[in-house]
Design brief:
Blueprint (H helix, E strand, L loop, with lengths): L4 E8 L3 H12 L5 E4 L8 H4 L31 H14 L6 E2 L4 E7 L4 E6 L2 E10 L21 E4 L13 E5 L5 H8 L5 E5 L6 E2 L8 H9 L1 H23 L6 H14 L3 H7 L11 E2 L3 H5 L4 E4 L3 E5 L2 E4 L4 E3 L2 E4 L14 E2 L6 H4 L18 E3 L12 H22 L3 E5 L1 H15 L3 H4 L21 H7 L8 E5 L14 H15 L2 E3 L2
Parallel strand pairs: 1-2, 1-6, 2-3, 4-17, 6-18, 7-16, 8-9, 8-16, 9-12, 10-11
Antiparallel strand pairs: 4-5, 5-6, 13-14, 14-15, 19-20, 20-21
Helix pairs in contact: 1-11, 5-6, 11-14
Length: 524
């Protein structure tokens, strides 16, 4: 890495997490940073997911930064186009364009223990950084299951996050694989135009009505003229969701009433008892994310739609075969099968202080300290890290809490002065995660009787936060230095004066001297 650009902070990703980090850095007076983005524009998951019907299931005024309110949201639940436009607006309003390095995919980054910095190799050039803030996000790398025969399918295949807008679905026989948040939006959007739609449903989802409507011109005028009204609206939306948390995290049986409402929602739209039985989950509502739609069930009841209550097992030529043996001829296969959440791909590209990758460190399960830092990876932080996800509220709230933690982390480095780094203590990481997993046992996500993408291969929920967003904000308000080791750059070893010594011996002495000079401060 002979030629490189050195920055104080390198941010990875330009979705809500990355742009939020960039804004916070500027507000902290830090301008020596770059935002490394693998694509050609900002937006993250709201850039990549452009499938028909794509929209947010969190109210617009809550799904936006508190420091960048938008009085002009057109609907109570915004679509992908408006959310992406909002992120472009944030980028321009806060002067982030000069910091962007678009088409710079991070290929590898490694911790230099001597220089106390990160060496970063990207597709667009090399960088070094004192601190790295990884905001790649858990919904950034699509996951397509390994289906026997799929490679030989002669029709069209794509994932919901890689929608092929050039492919005309009109009159086609289409297989939709999956019944998650993307699928319930795609199905009603494409059902009227396809010839035949076959939904492969491994597990049915609980779906509640979507209380969506156009925001009136009077409301938008009021929010522009009297900004505090927008703040109050956001606060009300937040407060309602905070009151719901205990049912998810402490008393899952209280969700029985909500479950009855969801069953009534199915009954209103689905008159066929056989189809209704297929679409009724057997697990407690809330165990998987509760989905919102007014059009999903009516679309499934249409004569050109078939619901196969089984996952996809194999592909034989143009025939897709379900696990229950059902065979269907199709022209296109659309996967709405989610993302690599508990096996984050970028972790394979991050090499820590011990020379092992973050993926190797997390082989037994992802875990971090306060969702932000991992043992063995000094001056490396994650936004939307392990156990920071939510089951009923806005992730922007969690992101802003993590930005508070990031800001204090950088302040602590300033106070320490000189070449310094903070390394999360393994004992602190372990204690934090033991407490999390203990609390997780009584949540609906563990006790609700389902197998969800929240759980890793060992059955641990390493995705969600088992508390309120207010509690998480208190836990991440500032850095507790007792949970970290302070690393100092090693003193430079003197050059040997004796001639004729072997390079190996000189190198060994230099290393020993550096190790002897390196000091580790234990914060009081």
């Amino acid at each position: 890495m002979a030629k490189h650009e050195h920055v104080r902070v390198a941010v990875i990703g330009s979705g809500f997490g990355g742009l939020g980090a960039a804004v916070r850095l500027r507000r902290e007076g830090i301008t020596d940073f770059v935002v490394l983005e693998r694509a050609g524009s900002v937006g993250g998951t709201w850039r990549d997911n452009s499938y028909p019907g794509c929209a947010c299931d969190v109210p617009s005024h809550l799904y936006s930064f508190s420091f960048a309110p938008n009085p002009d949201w057109p609907r109570t639940f915004s679509g992908q186009r408006h959310i992406r436009a909002y992120l472009e607006h944030v980028t321009d309003t806060f002067g982030l364009r000069p910091h962007l390095r678009l088409n710079h995919e991070v290929l590898r980054m490694a911790w230099d223990a001597d220089a106390l910095r990160w060496d970063i190799e990207t597709s667009g050039g090399a960088f070094t950084a004192d601190v790295v803030v990884a905001a790649a996000g858990p919904l950034s790398d699509p996951k397509i299951p390994d289906i026997p025969g799929l490679a030989g399918f002669e029709g069209k295949v794509f994932h919901s996050a890689q929608w092929d807008h050039d492919y005309d679905l009109r009159g086609k026989r289409v297989a939709m694989v999956g019944t998650g948040a993307s699928a319930i939006q795609i199905v009603p959007a494409i059902q009227p135009e396809v010839g035949r739609l076959t939904l492969f449903q491994r597990t049915p989802a609980w779906v509640m009505p979507r209380m969506d409507r156009a925001i009136t011109g009077a409301e938008r005028w009021l929010h522009r003229a009297v900004p505090v009204t927008g703040t109050l609206r956001r606060g009300l939306l937040w407060g309602i969701r905070e009151l719901q948390v205990s049912a998810f995290t402490k008393r899952p049986n209280e969700l029985g009433l909500v479950e009855n409402l969801a069953k009534a929602n199915i009954a209103r739209a689905i008159k066929d008892p056989v189809l209704r039985a297929k679409l009724t989950p057997s697990y407690r509502i809330g165990c998987k994310r509760i989905l919102l739609s007014n059009t999903y069930y009516p679309a499934l009841a249409q004569p050109n739609v078939d619901v196969v209550a089984s996952g996809l097992r194999e592909v034989r030529g143009s025939t897709v075969v379900a696990a229950d043996g059902t065979e269907t001829e199709v022209d296109a296969i659309i996967f709405g099968t989610g993302f690599h959440v508990t096996d984050i791909p970028i972790a394979h590209r991050v090499v820590g202080a011990d020379g092992v990758t973050l993926a190797e460190t997390w082989k037994g399960g992802v875990e971090s300290l306060r969702g932000a830092t991992a043992a063995g990876f000094p001056n490396f932080m994650t936004i939307i890290g392990p156990n920071t996800g939510l089951g009923n509220s806005s992730m922007i709230l969690m992101i802003e809490s993590q930005l508070n933690y990031m800001a204090d982390y950088l302040r602590q480095l300033d106070v320490l002065g000189g070449r310094a780094a903070l390394a999360a203590r393994p004992s602190a990481v372990g204690a934090w995660n033991r407490k999390l997993q203990s609390r997780m046992e009584r949540t609906v996500w563990k006790a609700g009787g389902c197998d969800s993408w929240y759980l890793d291969a060992n059955g641990r929920n390493t995705t969600l936060w088992p508390g309120t967003t207010g509690e998480f904000r208190r836990e991440t308000r500032q850095v507790d230095l007792a949970e970290y080791e302070v690393l100092r750059a090693p003193a430079k070893a003197p050059e040997p004066v004796a001639a004729g010594k072997s390079a190996t011996k000189r190198g060994t002495r230099k290393t020993q001297a550096a190790q002897a000079a390196q000091t580790t401060e234990v914060a009081r």
